Structure formats: structure tokens, C-alpha cells
Amino acid sequence: MADRNAYIERDRHGRERLVITTSPRRSSSHTRLSTRELLNAAEEREEVLIIRNEQLENQLAWSQAHERRGKEECTQLAARLQAQIDATRRLQDRLKEEKDKVTDLEERIRLMQRTSYEGYRQRYEELLVEVESLRAAVRQRDELIRVNEVRLSAKTQTIIELKGHLRSLGYRVVGE
User: Fold this and answer.
1) N or C end of the chain: smaller count of CB under 10 Å?
2) How many domains does the chain have?
């Protein structure tokens, strides 16, 4: 048997050709392979290549199916992720609205407290002025009452003196 190898190769244009190589050392003891033997070897190699091609096609089909499933899962995950992102955005918007409401309410409470404090203070001052005016009025009234009591006691004294004088003159005085 000679050191010959036969194989099929493709050129750069995609065409196949049968390549037969021989070893550079030739000895006369090696017999040359006949064309029939070369053809059988090429057919066996072709069968091996066909089987390998089928295996590769099966692997490709499996890989493509697996890729499709992966793409579907990615699409589903992307949809779920987008839904979660949308939900998160809605919650963030709602949280911002609630924070704005809280801030507004705090401001309103602060204004109400300040207004209430100012209102109470103003009302207190008004009542204080009113109480002072009432006290002044009471003092004036007490002064008038005292003056009137002094006048009344002076008049009463005068009446008593007049009654005493009239009795001393012999008149009868009714009342005490």
C-alpha cells in the first residue's frame, strides 16, 4: 500500500474536488492503489462526511430551537421587566405626589398655627384692651358711686338735721 491519502476539499468558490496525495518517499515495495480503491475510499469518506453533516445539521436545528426559546424567554423577561419598570415609575410618581401633598399640608399647618397664634394673640390683645377699658369703666363707676354715696350721706345728714330742726319748731315729721 502506498502512502497515499485522498480527501475532498473545497476551494474558495465553494467547489469540491478530490485531492490525492502521495508521500515524497516512494518505495518499490508499496503497491499503488487502484482508481477503484481510491473511489471506495472517497465514498467512505463521503459517507463519514454526510453523517457528520447530518450531526451538525441536527446540532444546528437544536441550537436554533434553543435560541428561539431563549429569545422567547428574553422577550417575556423584557416585557415583565418593562411592566415592573412602569409600575415602579407609577409608584415613584405617586410617592412624589404624596410627598408634595405632605409638604403642602405641613405648610398649611404651619400657616394655620402661625395664623392661629397671631389670631389668638390679636384676640388676646383685643380682650386685654377691652378688660382694661372695663376696669377703667368700673373704676369710674366706683368713683361715681362713692361720690354719690358722699352726696347721699350729705343729703341724708341734711335731711336729718332739717327733720331735727322742724321737730324742734314743733312740727310733726313723718318718716324717720
Assistant:
1) C
2) 1
